[in-house]
Design a protein that fits this description.
single chain, mainly alpha, Rossmann fold, Arc Repressor Mutant, subunit A, three-stranded parallel beta sheet, three-stranded antiparallel beta sheet, 9% strand, binds glutamic acid
């Protein structure tokens, strides 16, 4: 029988979430949803030295904001596998039990080397030009561990509670084969693998041991994670094998890296900005705070859509997908092996697509605080009309101001380029005629404005639309001109034309 799909996102609370981390969470979420399985949030906090206050809450907020909440785990409700924080799971004694099983079967051992001794070893190996100096099948023979020391000495050291770690005993030369859903079969020789520490001297398990114990205990069906974990997978395979759990281990899927737009190198931290970034929360390791996607004005739906297409494709040319649509389509067969290029410009385009789908009312409500900040307050219907008009020009809500501020403030300067090219000798006269005709209009709506404009043209000759736009807004481009005029209003339009014509004398 196929195992129930149970997947986990297992971040360490060492800071905010990187874009790649959220994508890992997303792919887990989509896969669980597609197969009506469980999506678990497990906090891997065994490295107390890297613990960052507030990071866990941040992770929970980020997943919630993205609309991809786990259905089990820290912050999302306990299932039968609680607790979901590894620091709390340590007290269950499970990590120690598994480590002892490995020691008893001869696949793990105690190592008493001090950090000075380890340093010396590294130096010795470097001096001997060993490419990858590490604690392994060869070097362990010269170190102080339960494989080299006499049995009674080991016993004495343990009884005296001499600081020690437990290491995995990796064979010297053995091919380790494993299957990855995305990469296919992978073969690595054990000579490449070091004797990983499983239990640290403070009794805490390392990631390597802890995640395996938890994946087994929590009945995880698929371990989906970033490519950076691929190099340690062979060691993990050995641990499963030595525990006799090869048949119970989760299937593996290592997701491709996210690359810079030019395809070279991993995406920079700045571009990988955090999705949710409570303003009060500042990663203590970052000198300057930077915006998250949320603060930059991205919609969560857009952000998730962007992430989904980083390393996965739907098999057609469509680009806009809701989370539910993604969940109906997602599978690992369409996840690529090679790195996924992240294009920040394209990301903005995605946001724009979602912005265009919002109602005028939603946009007006979202823009109102920005407008207030600039010192303006208008009636809701007016603001809705404004948003309807300017919507085509913006990618983010806050851009409504930059793109349409002239609706609220009369221009003080006029686009020189347009005027120097298009301002003719008779312009003043014809635009003055237009101004007068405008101020005599009874109805102020697009069709009256249009009729009036053409009537003046019939009399005075062609009127340049761009010049008219510059006279009223100061700038060369913008949404439909007559719609703009209607919105700005008859009095304001006439006043602005008057002011401009005086200035352009
Ligand atoms: N704690 C690991 C991390 O921070 C989890 C890796 C895994 O999913 O196995 O990425």
């Amino acid at each position: 029988m196929e195992k129930r799909v149970r997947v986990r996102f297992a971040p360490s609370p060492t800071g905010g979430l990187h874009m790649g981390g959220v994508r890992t969470a997303l792919f887990n979420y989509l896969f669980a949803k597609r197969h009506k399985g469980d999506f678990i949030l497990r906090i891997e906090d065994t490295d107390q030295t890297r613990f960052v206050e507030g990071a866990e809450e941040y992770i929970i907020n980020a997943l919630t904001w993205c609309g991809i909440p786990p259905n089990e785990g820290v912050g999302f409700g306990n299932g039968k596998h609680a607790p979901y924080r590894q620091s709390e799971r340590k007290d269950l004694g499970i990590y120690k039990t598994y480590a002892e099983r490995l020691i008893e079967s001869g696949h793990a051992y105690y190592a008493f080397d001090t950090s000075e001794e380890l340093d010396e070893m590294r130096k010795r190996l470097e001096a001997a030009k060993v490419v990858a100096p590490q604690y392994n099948a060869v070097t362990r023979q010269t170190m102080r561990n339960s494989l080299t020391l006499p049995e009674d000495e080991v016993k004495r050291l343990l009884e005296a509670e001499t600081p020690h770690v437990v290491r995995l005993k990796v064979p010297r030369n053995e091919d380790i084969r494993f299957h990855d859903i995305i990469r296919g079969w992978v073969v690595v020789n054990s000579a490449q693998v070091d004797d990983k520490v499983l239990l640290k001297s403070d009794g805490m398990p390392t990631y390597h041991l802890a995640h395996i114990v938890d994946d087994i205990e929590m009945e995880i069906s698929h371990a989906v994670r970033g490519e950076e974990w691929l190099p340690s997978a062979p060691a993990h395979i050995l641990i499963y094998k030595y525990l006799g759990l090869e048949n119970d281990m989760p299937k593996l899927a290592h997701l491709p890296l996210i690359l810079n737009p030019d395809g070279h190198g991993k995406i920079s931290k700045r571009e990988a900005r955090f999705p949710v970034f409570p303003l009060s929360w500042q990663d203590p390791r970052e000198a300057t705070p930077y915006l998250g996607y949320k603060e930059a004005g991205y919609y969560p739906e857009a952000f998730v859509n962007i992430l989904a297409l980083l390393g996965w494709n739907p098999g057609n040319n469509e680009e806009i997908f809701s989370v539910d649509e993604l969940a109906a389509l997602f599978d690992f067969e369409r996840v690529h092996k090679s790195g996924a290029k992240f294009d920040p410009e394209k990301a903005k385009w995605f946001n724009q697509q979602y912005l265009r789908k919002k109602s005028d009312e939603e946009l007006a409500d979202a823009f109102e605080p920005f407008l207030k900040e600039k010192g303006f307050s208008v009636e809701k219907p007016f603001l809705m009309a404004f948003c309807r008009l300017v919507k085509e020009k913006v990618q983010f809500v806050h851009e409504f101001w930059e793109q349409g501020k002239y609706v609220f403030v009369a221009p003080e300067a006029y686009d020189e380029k347009v005027l120097s090219k298009k301002w003719k000798e008779n312009s003043k006269e014809s635009f003055t005629a237009l101004m007068t005709a405008f101020s005599n209009l009874k109805n102020w709506d697009v069709s009256s404005i249009t009729t009036c404009f053409h009537a003046v043209e019939a009399e005075k000759g062609k009127l340049d639309m761009q010049v008219l736009r510059v006279l009223i807004t100061g700038v060369a481009g913008g949404p439909q001109l007559f719609d703009m005029l209607e919105l700005i209003g008859k009095t304001a339009v006439s006043d602005r034309m008057k002011q401009a014509l005086e200035k352009l004398d």
